[in-house]
């Protein structure tokens, strides 16, 4: 009886791992490097890292209309880092 329970647990674990590996990741496929962004229209951001489920590194800004805007990572453009700092300060101020 114990071996049947162990086999079922193992099968369940294998199925769970397989399902978790099939989750689609919403990645930027390309980035805009010269696009001017109006920071007042941006509400949040995430950092996408290459090799962590996506092919390229990017900064993903979300605007008020919930559109995602893919730009270069902050290490490649100081202006992107300034917008991230602005959003972080605005978020802390609203808490």
UniProtKB/TrEMBL annotation:
Transmembrane segments: none annotated. Residues 24-87 form the Chemokine interleukin-8-like domain. Keywords: Cytokine, Signal. Residues 1-21 form the signal peptide. It comes from the Eukaryota. InterPro entries: Chemokine_IL8-like_dom (IPR001811), Interleukin_8-like_sf (IPR036048). This is Chemokine interleukin-8-like domain-containing protein. It comes from Characodon lateralis.
């Amino acid at each position: 009886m114990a071996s049947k329970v162990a086999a079922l647990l193992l099968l369940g674990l294998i199925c769970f791992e397989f399902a978790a590996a099939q989750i689609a990741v919403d990645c930027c496929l390309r980035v805009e490097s010269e696009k001017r962004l109006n920071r007042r229209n941006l509400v949040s951001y995430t950092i996408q890292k290459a090799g962590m489920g996506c092919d390229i590194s990017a900064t993903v800004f979300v605007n008020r209309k919930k559109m995602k805007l893919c730009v270069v990572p902050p290490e490649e453009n100081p202006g992107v880092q300034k917008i991230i700092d602005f959003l972080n300060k605005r978020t802390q101020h609203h808490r």
